[in-house]
Design goal:
- The protein is 33% helix and 19% strand.
- The chain is built from 7 helices and 10 strands.
- Strands 6-7-8-3-9-10 form a 6-stranded mixed sheet, sandwiched between helices. The chain has a 4-stranded antiparallel sheet with strand order 2-1-4-5, with no helix packed on it.
- Helix 2 packs antiparallel against helix 3, helix 3 packs across helix 4 and helix 6 crosses helix 7.
- The two termini are 29 Å apart.
């Protein structure tokens, strides 16, 4: 892919980005360019060790590129930006706090620091206690975990813990949602239920979303665009269009099966 000039029309722009672990390590990405437009839903898939989670951490600002640039919106990424939301595989919940307190955590941090540009967007005033309670209540009800609000994470199911993590993130009203294999440890019915929930939220909120997954079927369900990574160094963005993702009944269509087979071919998994 050719070098990309960042514009405000892109939510994510990687321009000739290189990243390696250590000064002498093999680059995971080398002169890698890729862009994501606002409102797009992406999946990232590839073999183990190809850099899926590394790429997500770079976009989240938790790692820094060795060279080249990464922009999210108008921000040159050198540290996390408060407008981005990150959901992890292990939920990231505080075990000593209730579901309510876990969901409210980010809003309390914002009230404490105010709009400093690090913990909260500069353009938004800190939420009042009443506004924070309203946001927490809304997302607990929307994600169907309001009745669990006084329980601790150890007393609820894995699916409910992941819903709690999603609610905590969405209460902050992010413009970018990053997810790192968020459903991989869940049983199949719970995983499919949460996949459907994410699709609903994407439609309702018009969120820009990027989900890392190791499952071909999940990549094809959640991503209207799919980025396929290969063994390092990744030098070119291999993009598979998947415009029917998220449409009713897509899992049962021939188009979906063909898309899964296309991804298997790109990953070298066909017999």
């Amino acid at each position: 892919m050719a070098s990309i000039t960042n514009t405000t029309t892109d939510m994510i722009t990687l321009d000739r980005m290189t990243f390696r672990y250590g000064a002498r390590g093999t680059p995971v990405f080398e002169d890698f360019s890729w862009s994501v437009a606002p409102g797009e839903a992406w999946s990232i898939i590839g073999p183990s060790g190809c850099g899926k989670t590394t790429l997500l951490m770079l976009i989240a600002g938790l790692r820094r590129a060795t060279s080249g640039t990464i922009h999210v919106g108008e921000t040159l990424m050198r540290r996390p930006r408060p407008e981005s939301g990150l959901i992890l595989q292990d939920y990231g919940l505080m075990p000593w706090a209730t579901v309510w307190d876990n969901v409210a955590l980010g809003l309390r941090v914002r009230r404490f620091y105010g709009p400093d540009g690090k913990h909260a967007p500069r353009s938004e005033p800190a939420p009042s206690r009443r506004e924070a309670r309203q946001q927490v209540t809304h997302w607990l009800r929307r994600l169907n975990i309001y009745e669990q609000r006084n329980k601790f994470p150890g007393a609820i199911s894995g699916g409910q813990r992941q819903r709690t993590a999603i609610a905590r993130t969405l209460a902050l009203q992010p413009d970018l949602l990053l997810m790192d294999e968020p459903f991989s440890s869940l049983d199949a019915p719970t995983r499919e239920d949460l996949q459907n929930l994410v699709l609903q939220l994407q439609r309702e909120m018009e969120l820009t979303s990027v989900i890392v997954t190791h499952a071909i079927e999940e990549a094809a369900i959640l991503g209207r665009h799919i980025l396929v990574l290969q063994d390092p160094p990744n030098t070119e963005a291999i993009v598979v269009p998947n415009p029917d993702a998220g449409t009713p009944g897509y899992r049962s269509t021939r188009t979906y099966l063909d898309k899964c087979n296309q991804l298997r071919t790109l990953l070298g998994l066909t017999q």
